[in-house]
Amino acid sequence: MILVILPWITQKSAWFTLHRLRGATELGTGLFAGPVEADEAYMGGKRMNMSNARRRALRDAKDAGGKTTKMAVAGLKDRATKHVRAKVVQHTDKATLQGFVRENTAPGATVYTDEAPMYKGLPFEHDSVKHSVAEYVRGQVHTNGMESFWSLLKRGYVGIYHKMSPKHLDRYVTEFAGRQNMRDHDTIDQMGLVVEGMGGKRLTYEKLIKPNGLPSGAREKQDSPQMQQSPDGHPGPKTIPRPSSLPKLRRDDGRKVIGQLSLNFESMHESTCCFSNSRWLEESRGIRGLGG
């Protein structure tokens, strides 16, 4: 048995690599021929889970004339190909949402939305359902495809990442749109599409952590002396000075540990193989009627 020891990788390196892969999942699928569903969603933490200070800050911002404190995401789904396209938008006004629809929808396509006034006047064949009166489906008119995508995105928010900062939310949205668009492909084909999508999308760490005007979730004050915030706002372990009472480890000590681990794994592997082979022999004898 060969025991492979992988080189150490820090949490920061893994986080950086994953963001680069998220950008690679964006596929150029052309304009949607339709029928197309258009909708928007809002991402952000629940106010009930926030601290009192954070709630007061949001309440003061609302009293000052501010709107929602969550990030808006606009999305489209082509029913013919089941492909999704979504991106973070700073505003949910008529110009922004209709511009997003026009940029990604082919002329002559049919567009279905809810009754939001921002979609009125689209230069397409357009129909809508009225969610405000509990009308969700009327024949072929509905936005259930996009609602399903929003559900997957929010389940990923709650169940996988637990936090998507406004600064990097667009890459997470791209990742889930890429998952949706590649779901019918085999694993090897998905890997090929990701490699193909890496072209022309170089992302450096300096660019990743560079301020873009959106909050990254970094805390201004440290709650614990054993934790610190990296420049990108992602928490990481703080280097604690080694006490003088602890012994210093030499390189040879590490080799001894690795060698011992290899021997242990080899003995476990041999024992498992011997047990499996003897049990298989007994079962085969019983099946063939050879007796003990």
How would you portray this structure in words?
With 292 residues, the chain is of the alpha/beta class. Helices cover 42% and strands 13% of the residues. The chain has eight helices and seven strands. The protein has helices spanning 11-24, 52-63, 94-104, 144-161, 169-181, 187-197, 205-209, 251-288; strands at residues 36-43, 71-78, 84-89, 110-114, 125-129, 227-229, 235-237. The chain has a five-stranded mixed β-sheet with strand order 3-2-1-4-5, with helices on both faces. Strands 6-7 form a two-stranded antiparallel sheet. Strand 6 (227-229) and strand 7 form a beta hairpin. Helix 1 crosses helix 5 (169-181) and helix 4 crosses helix 5 (169-181). The longest helix has 38 residues, at 251-288. The chain is globular.
Write the topology of this structure.
Blueprint: H1 11-24, E1 36-43, H2 52-63, E2 71-78, E3 84-89, H3 94-104, E4 110-114, E5 125-129, H4 144-161, H5 169-181, H6 187-197, H7 205-209, E6 227-229, E7 235-237, H8 251-288
Parallel strand pairs: 1-4, 4-5
Antiparallel strand pairs: 1-2, 2-3, 6-7
Quickly list its features.
292 residues, alpha/beta, five-stranded mixed β-sheet, two-stranded antiparallel sheet, 8 helices, globular, disordered C terminus
Number of strands: 7
User: Roughly how many Å apart are the termini?
Assistant: 32 Å
The secondary-structure element order is HEHEEHEEHHHHEEH
Percent of residues in helices: 40-55%
In which order are the strands of the major sheet placed?
A: 3-2-1-4-5
Question: In DSSP terms, counting alpha (H) and pi (I) runs of 4 or more, how many helices?
Answer: 8
Strand content: 5-15%
